[in-house]
Structure formats: structure tokens, C-alpha cells
Specification:
Largest interface: A-B, 69 and 63 residues
Strand content of chain A: under 5%
Oligomer: heterodimer
Strand order of the largest sheet of chain A: 2-1-3-4
Number of strands of chain B: 0
Helix content of chain B: over 70%
Shape of chain A: globular
Radius of gyration of chain B: 24 Å
CATH topology of the largest domain in chain B: Globin-like
Distance between the termini of chain A: 79 Å
Structural class of chain A: mainly alpha
Largest sheet of chain A: 4 strands, parallel
Order of helices and strands of chain A: HHHHHHHHHHHHEHHEHEHEHEHHHHEHEH
Radius of gyration of chain A: 24 Å
């Protein structure tokens, strides 16, 4: 009879790291943890190097140019000279380990190379070997290592397991920004055509047609018509948005995920209803129809090329300033890079709310205002008539999106709005919100399908905190101000915390918004019945 | 359960809990186990905390002889984690069997002062652990099925309005435009049929 293995033998994990150091531990590609390689046509569209059909499995031929090593090292050299931050981040880490357990991908996967310090070390070791005197002479003794094909594949595997969320940088005593290291790492990989299909497709589509799914103007318009029909059914009011209208005061740019994917469409209906009620002189654009900047997941240059569309369109239409919707990395790009890339936008005016007269000094350079700031200002000035009881069927918590929280400091505005449009708001624990917020696990182009396990693990710490408020307070709605959150969190909730739905903040604003001439509301924006009113109307 | 066994298990619980937790944590990479083992903060060490609280509740529930329906959510919280951590199915649920061994060993180490535990009582306790193992298999399978279901439903949801509108309006004339959406949808389907990992262009032609 065959020997029956004991339970402890069975559960020995064969991928348990050997006692060797990390440098000598070859990378292993695990299914569910990485994405497909980019198709050639996407790279050709934006003139990216080395377009070819390739498989991203580790043992396949990645079809790299013969001089790939030279390209990588030259690429590193160029960036070390160009970005002081990159050189600084390569030099100053003291390996204190403060970042190690702050990364949700490490917390969820347990893979040591997902510790931010080690993720950075993957590229730092090559920097040491080729760009420092000690590393050139002493090699491994000075923390340097040879750039091999295995190292390159390791870069690709782990730089596409980082969502550029910057949580680790909050805890780093030196302020090392791992997101920037990942960005540079990906930029260098892109020099060899090493991308992912889910990022390259949206980049090409955004470049050619203005948005990540490649929707053309008439498709966008027809989708808005359907949303307007739903709004009319709920409120009895016909909203009439305009597109590409010259001479409008404001250009509104939202993530295109809100145009067609649920629950983003309800957020979009929220924008439409709010602007209609205000009588705002604004226009949508089918040219600059994507707030999200997938280019920034490939290279600074591509991020700049896509971002430029927003200013170009603002100039073409002759608007005074730009209002931006609920999006994550769009705002990181606007807040941190737009001015340097494509500014100064001196053809625009410093944004002034036409309703309250508030001058948005914080946006005087980019001329772009976040809708949470805009709406919070409206509420602060008492310009909106709100009936929070229409959201009484919802017990709500708020997920700070990494980019708006850590990338630009929008922390209080969405909370202020939510507390004014609903009656049941509950915060998640302090160490999981605001600057310390956990990522949804799908940011920076990781929200493909083939890497679902990675996303579910990376999103576990966030879901775990939601589960806590779900159990403690009965929270059933997770709000956010990011389109990737609206795409990714429903999946995360479905797996980890069934019974919690996901919504953008402006969906709940519109539910509560009492519009002039509206019929008595019996449905929310999802066409679901509103809660029974108890006692007197407070409208 | 026989009172004597119950009392002994109560007394031995801290030792059993610690050994069980350690043995589960050994299934994670050495460098990571140190961090993951943190159990104090529910939010900053979610894996360690969830597993610790889960097995603590399981031991307690077994001693108190609560119905299995009450133990199921505890198993659920642990196995959901292990179901997406690239353990094989047997590795994901094997931790349940460790409990049996640990309990037996702890009881063998008892001093004579505790007297003799009735063999039938011990066997009954063992069967309860077996039942937990069976429930664990169910939860593991449910979790894996859920992962595949999510992969498929997400793509549909992402483009739901678009597909709905387009089909209503018969506007899908330009094939190239829809390629991106459709290819992604087909890719989801392929994965459902276990054709994971092939290049996207090839997948579309291989669809059953």
C-alpha cells in the first residue's frame, strides 16, 4: 500500500522560499498573478518600441531585441540624470523595513518581493552594480547584481504587482515614493515593449478616440440619451447635456468608465442632475472624453501625450476653466504632473464657481477643480436643497481612493458631502482610511481579469475593514470617488463581503437632491424603490 | 461531550491554539511569516488576525459543542483567504486535520492527575473535526467557483450599458471598435473553460 502522507506533509508549500537570499531566488510566475502581454497593434498605434505578438509566461521567448541589456542600462542612465527623485530613491534607503508590512499586496500575498523595500531593491541592485563605484568593484558585496533575463522578468512580474498607491511612502521616514520607482521601472520595461494588454489597449484607444474603450462620439451621445431617459423616469425632468460646445464656461471631464459601466453610470447620472439643477454653463467633450490617464501607467511621455488632450480641448472650445469628475489617477496626474507636462494653462482663467463666487486658489495653476471641492462648496453655501432621508435605506462608509487621498489630499470634502446627503455614515477604522487608506488592489492598470487572484489578495486588507463596519453597523454601501474603485470594488465585495454595494459620491448626492419641478420621487437612481417615509417630510 | 474531556480541552486550549496557529503560519514563506503572524491589529495584520480569531473560535465552538452552522462562518473567513493564495485544494484545507493531531498529542502529554479520557468521547470529538474538514471542502469549492464567476461577470458588467445600448440601436457596425470589448468578454469565457493563460489573439479563435 502506498504511504499515506500526513496532513503536515500535504500542506508543506512547495513554493516556500529556500533559505537562500532573495537575489539567488529565481522569480516564479504564478497563474492569476500577472497579465497578458500587450498586442502589437496597441503598441504600434502609439509608436511604442518592439511591437510583436508575445506570451508573458516566464518560460516563453519574450522576443526582445538583441541589445536589450544595453537599452535597459541606457534607459536607466537617462532617467537617473533626468529625475533627481529616482537617483535619490536609489541611494537613500536604509532598509529600516517600516514599509514592509504596509503594502496590501504583501499583506495579501505574503510574497517577500511584494514588500516595498524589496520591490525597490529589484531595480536598486542593478543600479548599484552598474552605476555606483562600490557596486562596480564589489558587486554583490555592495548590494549589486548582474542584469540578466531572469532579473528583467522579475521586474516585469513585480512592477505589475504594484498599484502605485503610495501607502508605503506615508510610512517611509525618508519619504521614498515606491510609486515613482514602479513608474520608472515600468517606463524602462516599455522600452523593450514589455507592457500588459489591459494597459496598452486603453492607451491606444484613449490616444485614437479619446477614451479607454475607444467609444466614438455618437456612441457616447446615445449612452447619455439613455441615462437622460432614466433620469426622467426618476425625476420627471429631462436633462439636456451638450457635447463639444464652443463658448461654454466650463469643460467637464470625467472618467469614461462612468459612461457605460455600472455602477459608474449612476455617478454619471448624478453629475448630469446636479449640473442641470444648477443651470451650469458647461459642456462634455467627446474628444477629451477620458479623465483616467492609462498613459501614466506606461511612461511619463505617454501620460503627457494623453493628458494634453484636456488642455487642447479646453483651448479649442474656448472655455474658462475645467471641472473634473470622480476619478483616481486622473487627479494624481492633474495635481502632480499636469502643470509640468503641459502647463501653464494661461489661456484659461482661475476657476470661480458661478454659483457661489468661490475662487479656487488651489487650482489657479492647473485651472482644474475637483468635483468634490465644487459640490462641497455648494453645500457649504447652502445652494443645494437636499433630502438626506432619500438615502435612508443606505448605511454608508467611504473608501479614500489612493490617488485623491495620498496624491492630492482630498480627504474631507467627500465626507462633508456625504454627511449632508445621507443620515447613516460610518467610518472604517482609522488605520485604514485617509492618508493610510488601503488600495482597492486594482489600481494602475491592474484591474484585468487574468490576474484576479492578485486583485483579491491585494484588496483583502480594504475588504477586511469594510467587513468590520458591515458587521458592526450594518454598512451596505461603500462609496468612493474613483472609477477604478467603482469597477473593482464590486468584485472585491462580492468575494469578501457579500451584501455591500458600491457607489460614487455623486450618485448619493443626486438621490438626495431636490430638483426644481421634479415629480415626487419613488425610486433612487438605480430605479429601486425609495425607503418609506416615516413621520413628517423634511423637504 | 464527556465533562472530563471538555475540562481538559478547556485547560489545554491556550497551548492547542498556539500550536495550531504556528503550524498554519508555517505554510507561508519564512520571510513573510514573521509579519503575517501579527495578530494584535485586525486591520494592519488582517491575515494573521483573521486566521487567529477564526481558529480560536473554532476550538471554543468545538468545546462548547455549538451547532456546525455557527462554526461555518469562521471556517469561511479563513478558507476564503487560502482559496486565493495559490495553495492546492488539499493544502488550503489541511489545517483542519492538524487540530486532531495537536489535540491528541496534548492529551497524551497530560499528567496522570487528569485521569483517563474516555476513548469514545475522544473519537466523537475527532468526528467533529472530520465534519469541519468536509465543510471546509465545500467552502473552498464555493470560493474558487466565485473567483471564476467574478472574472466572467466583471467584464460583462463593465461594458453592460454599452452592450445593452449598442444591441438595442444596432450601431455595432464598425467591427474594429468593438474588438476590444468583445475580445475581453471572450477571454473571460475562455478562462471559464480552463483555457487560461493563452495569448488573447489565439484565445478568440479557440473558443468552444
Amino acid at each position: 500500500m502506498a504511504k499515506t502522507p500526513k496532513p503536515e506533509e500535504l500542506s508543506k508549500i512547495d513554493y516556500k522560499l529556500p533559505e537562500k537570499g532573495w537575489m539567488d531566488t529565481p522569480v516564479e510566475f504564478k497563474e492569476g498573478m500577472y497579465c497578458h502581454g500587450a498586442r502589437p497593434q496597441y503598441l504600434e498605434t502609439v509608436d511604442f518600441p518592439n511591437p510583436r505578438q508575445w506570451s508573458s509566461k516566464k518560460d516563453e521567448d519574450w522576443k526582445l531585441p538583441e541589445n536589450w541589456k544595453e537599452i535597459v542600462l541606457n534607459g536607466m542612465k537617462e532617467r537617473l540624470e533626468k529625475y533627481r527623485s529616482f537617483r535619490l530613491f536609489m541611494d537613500i534607503c536604509v532598509r529600516c523595513g517600516a514599509c514592509a508590512d504596509k503594502c496590501q499586496f504583501f499583506l495579501g500575498t505574503g510574497d517577500p518581493k511584494n514588500m516595498p523595500v524589496l520591490r525597490a531593491e529589484l531595480i536598486r541592485s542593478v543600479y548599484k552594480r552598474y552605476f555606483t563605484a562600490s557596486g562596480k568593484m564589489l558587486g554583490k558585496l555592495a548590494g549589486g547584481r548582474e542584469l540578466t533575463l531572469d532579473v528583467l522578468k522579475e521586474w516585469w512580474y513585480y512592477f505589475y504587482q504594484c498599484s502605485e498607491c503610495r501607502r508605503c511612502s506615508v510610512f517611509c521616514p525618508y519619504g521614498i515614493d515606491q510609486a515613482e520607482i514602479t513608474m520608472i521601472g515600468r517606463e524602462i520595461l516599455n522600452l523593450l515593449g514589455l507592457n500588459t494588454d489591459w494597459i496598452a489597449g486603453p492607451v491606444a484607444n484613449s490616444y485614437m478616440r479619446g477614451n479607454h474603450l475607444g467609444l466614438e462620439p455618437h456612441t457616447i451621445k446615445s449612452n447619455f440619451d439613455f441615462m437622460a431617459e432614466d433620469i426622467e423616469e426618476v425625476t420627471g425632468i429631462k436633462v439636456e447635456p451638450t457635447f463639444n460646445r464652443k463658448g461654454a464656461e466650463i469643460l467637464f471631464v470625467a472618467p469614461s468608465g462612468d459612461f457605460f459601466g455600472d455602477p459608474g453610470t449612476y455617478t454619471c447620472m448624478g453629475y448630469l442632475m446636479l449640473f442641470h439643477e444648477l443651470g451650469l454653463d458647461y459642456t462634455w467633450s467627446t474628444y477629451a472624453s477620458e479623465g483616467g490617464n492609462f498613459g501614466s501607467f506606461t511612461s511619463m511621455e505617454m501620460g503627457k501625450r494623453l493628458n494634453y488632450k484636456i488642455y487642447a480641448e479646453a483651448k479649442r472650445l474656448g472655455v474658462k476653466w475645467i471641472l473634473g469628475g470622480e476619478c483616481g489617477h486622473m487627479w494624481r496626474v492633474v495635481n502632480q504632473y499636469m502643470d509640468t507636462w503641459n502647463g501653464p494653462a494661461d489661456f484659461l482663467e482661475v476657476p470661480v464657481s458661478p454659483i457661489t463666487g468661490t475662487r479656487f486658489e488651489n487650482a489657479k495653476s492647473t485651472k482644474m477643480v475637483h468635483i468634490a471641492e465644487f459640490t462641497a462648496d455648494l453645500i457649504k453655501h447652502g445652494k443645494l436643497k437636499l433630502d438626506p432621508s432619500r438615502n435612508d435605506h443606505l448605511k454608508v462608509t467611504f473608501h479614500d481612493s489612493c490617488n485623491t487621498a495620498r496624491g492630492m489630499g482630498i480627504l474631507d470634502e467627500p465626507r462633508y458631502i456625504l454627511k449632508n446627503v445621507l443620515n447613516h455614515f460610518y467610518e472604517m477604522p482609522e488605520e485604514t482610511i485617509r492618508e493610510k487608506t488601503f488600495c482597492c488592489g486594482s489600481g494602475s492598470g491592474l484591474n484585468a481579469a487574468e490576474n484576479m487572484e492578485l486583485r483579491l489578495r491585494g484588496g483583502f486588507p480594504r475588504a477586511n475593514a469594510v467587513k468590520y463596519v458591515h458587521q458592526k453597523y450594518g454598512v451596505n454601501m461603500l462609496t468612493n470617488i474613483c472609477a477604478i474603485d467603482r469597477a473593482a470594488l464590486p468584485t472585491l465585495m462580492n468575494y469578501w463581503v457579500p451584501g455591500v454595494d458600491v457607489a460614487g459620491v455623486h450618485e448619493l448626492v443626486a438621490n438626495a437632491l431636490v430638483m426644481k419641478g421634479e415629480k415626487e420621487r419613488t425610486q433612487d437612481l438605480r430605479l429601486e424603490p425609495l425607503p418609506e417615509k416615516v413621520g413628517a417630510e423634511n423637504v | 461531550m464527556e465533562t472530563k474531556l471538555k475540562d481538559t480541552l478547556r485547560e489545554k486550549k491556550p497551548a492547542i491554539l498556539k500550536r495550531w496557529f504556528d503550524v498554519i503560519m508555517e505554510t507561508y514563506p519564512t520571510e513573510a511569516a514573521g509579519f503575517l503572524k501579527g495578530t494584535k491589529n485586525r486591520f494592519t495584520s488582517p491575515v494573521g488576525y483573521t486566521i487567529y480569531e477564526g481558529i480560536d473560535g473554532l476550538i471554543d465552538g468545538l468545546i462548547r459543542e455549538v451547532p456546525f452552522e455557527e462554526l461555518s462562518p469562521l471556517l469561511d473567513s479563513i478558507i476564503k483567504i487560502r482559496a486565493v493564495q495559490k495553495f492546492s485544494p488539499s493544502q488550503a484545507v489541511a489545517f483542519i486535520f492538524h487540530l486532531k493531531r495537536i489535540v491528541n498529542e496534548e492529551l497524551q502529554n497530560m499528567s496522570d492527575a487528569h485521569g483517563v479520557i474516555d476513548a469514545a468521547a475522544l473519537s466523537e470529538f475527532g468526528s467533529k473535526i472530520d465534519t469541519l474538514a468536509l465543510i471546509s471542502f465545500d467552502i473552498y469549492m464555493e470560493s474558487r467557483e466565485k473567483v471564476y464567476e467574478l472574472k466572467a461577470s466583471e467584464a460583462r458588467k463593465r461594458a453592460f450599458r454599452l452592450l445593452q445600448r449598442e444591441s438595442q440601436l444596432y450601431e455595432m457596425q464598425e467591427k474594429e471598435r468593438s474588438d476590444f470589448v468583445i475580445t475581453n468578454l471572450l477571454r473571460e469565457e475562455n478562462q471559464l473553460y480552463g483555457m487560461q493563460g493563452q495569448d488573447p489573439n489565439i484565445e478568440t479563435t479557440n473558443l468552444k
